[in-house]
Amino acid sequence: MIIVDNAIWSWRGQKWAHLASDSSYRELHEFANQLGKRRISFQGDHYDVNELERRDAINLGATAVGCRDLLKSIRSSGLRRRSRLESWNILCDDEFEGSLIPDLISRSVTSRCFSRQLVSRLNEFSPELTNQRVKIIIMQRSGQAAIVVSGPLGQCETKTVEDDTSWARLSFSGINTTLEIVEGIEWS
Fold it and tell me: Global pTM?
């Protein structure tokens, strides 16, 4: 079951709540995806949602609970992570020619394994990258690496990938495409 507590936590001028699952991370990630939450915003055992996202979550079937009940529920299910994930280290946040993305990933991500996986996953979605400029964000933290690319990416395969170590989502808006890939996620 997806649960959401009260939006009582202040941050950046808004009130925030926690969205969690009492049964599995997979269920939580799927639900968060329906809300439009990006995987890179996963906090280790929950997603932070603002008041509007909280209402949308309840409308989609999440159960509203108190803060203590949410914590008790994820603890009893074994889904509570004692330590928060560390913050993302942004390695690149700029505009580049789309065809330069694989080289940027290879030079930026310190884990060669994640670097190869990101490039491989990128090629699955967009085998021939555009020569036009696109917005590129490359991030890394312990055990994870991620890339978000937005702009005219050219021909892209419409699909979502979810497996034990990676997640990817592609969305279209007019001529612009946003591709988000995260490698190294532990599903538990």
Answer: 0.62
* Amino acid (one-letter) located at 177: T
Is residue 83 predicted with pLDDT exceeding 70?
no
CA distance 76 to 84: 18
Query: Residue 43 is part of which domain span?
Result: 2-76
User: DSSP label at 22?
Assistant: S
pLDDT in tens, 13-32: 889 999 999 988 889 989 99
Same domain, 117 and 66: no
Does the residue 72 lie in any domain?
Answer: yes
Query: Do 125 and 70 fall into the same domain?
Result: no
d(Cα 171, Cα 113) in Å, to the nearest integer?
A: 26
83 belongs to a structural domain: no
Confidence of residue 52 (pLDDT cuts 50, 70, 90): very high
Where do we find the tokens 């996620």? 185
Residue tagged 């008041």 (tokens)? 51
Residue whose C-alpha is closest to residue 29's, from 132, 128, 151, 160: 160
